[in-house]
Write a structure and sequence with these properties.
With 315 residues, the protein is α+β, with helices and mostly antiparallel strands. It folds into 2 domains: 121 residues, NTF2-like, domain 1 (Nuclear Transport Factor 2, Chain: A); 128 residues, Immunoglobulin-like, CATH 2.60.40. It has 7 helices and 15 strands.
Length: 315
C-alpha cells in the first residue's frame, strides 16, 4: 500500500473516531469569536456620575453644613422658593429675617412683592449650591431658571442667580436674600474730642460689602470736613493686614455745618467669608474751618484751622 493511501486512511479513521469532539470544539471556538466581536463592537454604556453636592461649600469643603441640619436648611429654601414661585407674597416675606426685611425692603411687603414679580415672571425651577459657611450663617447660591417643561418655552431661556443666607433666629431658620447677610449693632463705639463726636451705630453686612451707619456731630462754630472724595483714603476700614478705603466719597461728601449732626453711611468692600475681622474705622483727615462755607467746601487742608485724624475701635 502506498504511503499516501495509508495517511488518508489514518486521517479518515481519526475523524471517524473523534468527529463529535471536533464538532464541539469548532462550535465553541466559533461562539467565542462571535461573542468577542460583539463585545468589542457593542455601544459603550455611559454611566453618569452624580457629582452634585449642594451642601458642601465650594469655597471650603471642610466647612460643610452639618448633616443633621441639611434637611431643615434644604426644606426652608424649597418652601421659600415655592412661595415666591406661586406668588404667595406674604408667606414668603414672613420667612425673611427681620434685618433683611428692614434693609432690603424697608419693612414693606409691597417692596418685596416687586422683587418677586421681577424675578418670577413665569413658573421657575431652581438648584442650590452651598457657597460658604461662617459663624453658623449658611450662604448658598440659588440659581432660578425657566421651567421649559411646564411653559413650553423654546427661546429666551433665562437664569437668575443670587446669594441667600440661612440664619437661625430663635431656633427657626430664616432667609436673607439678594446677597444681604445681617445687621450688627454697636454699643458705645465712638470717638470724641473738642471738635467732633463720631458715633458708629451699626453695620449691615452683605456678601461682598459692609455698610456702617455713622452719626457725626460738629461741636464747633465753624465747618468741619470729613471727606470730599478728592483725596485718597480719607476714611478707611482697618482689617489688620490691610486697610480698605470708603467707597464713592466724591458723591457722598461729609461736610458738616456749625453745631449740626449728620447721618452718614460708609460703604467698604469686604467679603463676609474672607475671615478678616474689622478692628477700627480710621477718619484720616478731619479738617476744621471757620464759618466760611465756600472755603470749607473746597476741602483744602492748607486752608483749615486744624487737621488731624481719629481712629475708632470697633471692638
Amino acid at each position: 500500500m502506498k504511503p499516501g493511501t495509508r495517511i488518508l486512511l489514518a486521517i479518515r479513521a481519526f475523524f471517524k473516531k473523534y468527529w463529535l469532539y471536533i464538532v464541539v470544539i469548532a462550535v465553541v471556538w466559533i461562539a467565542v469569536i462571535l461573542i468577542n466581536n460583539y463585545l468589542k463592537n457593542r455601544p459603550v454604556e455611559v454611566v453618569v456620575e452624580n457629582t452634585y453636592t449642594p451642601n458642601i461649600p465650594i469655597m471650603n469643603s471642610g466647612e460643610s453644613v452639618p448633616e443633621n441640619e441639611q434637611e431643615d436648611v434644604n426644606s426652608v429654601i424649597d418652601t421659600f422658593f415655592n412661595y415666591c414661585n406661586n406668588k404667595d407674597y406674604r408667606n414668603a416675606y414672613n420667612m425673611l429675617t427681620d434685618d433683611c426685611k428692614e434693609y432690603m425692603y424697608g419693612n414693606s411687603l409691597e417692596s418685596f412683592t416687586e422683587y418677586v414679580d421681577l424675578i418670577y415672571t413665569s413658573k421657575k425651577i431652581y438648584n442650590i449650591q452651598n457657597y460658604s459657611n461662617v459663624d453658623n450663617v449658611y450662604i448658598y447660591d440659588i440659581n432660578i431658571l425657566d421651567d421649559i417643561l411646564s411653559t413650553g418655552t423654546t427661546g429666551g431661556y433665562q437664569t437668575y442667580t443670587e446669594k441667600i443666607a440661612l440664619i437661625n433666629e430663635n431656633g427657626i431658620y430664616k432667609i436673607s436674600n439678594q446677597g444681604y447677610i445681617k445687621k450688627t449693632t454697636f454699643t458705645n463705639v465712638y470717638g470724641e474730642d473738642q471738635n467732633v463726636k463720631i458715633d458708629i451705630l451699626y453695620k449691615n453686612a452683605s456678601y461682598s460689602r459692609e455698610e456702617y451707619a455713622v452719626e457725626i456731630q460738629n461741636k464747633t462754630n465753624g465747618y468741619i470736613v470729613i471727606a470730599t472724595g478728592d483725596l485718597a483714603n480719607e476714611i478707611t476700614l482697618n482689617l489688620g493686614d490691610q486697610k480698605r478705603a470708603a467707597l464713592d466719597m466724591r458723591n457722598n461728601q461729609i461736610i458738616i455745618a456749625p453745631g449740626q449732626k449728620a447721618a452718614v453711611y460708609l460703604l467698604f468692600d469686604k467679603y463676609y467669608d474672607d475671615h478678616k475681622t474689622p478692628s477700627e474705622i480710621n477718619f484720616n483727615l478731619i479738617r476744621v474751618y471757620g464759618n466760611d462755607e465756600e472755603t470749607a467746601s473746597q476741602g483744602l487742608t492748607e486752608n483749615a484751622n486744624s487737621s488731624y485724624s481719629i481712629n475708632i475701635s470697633l471692638s
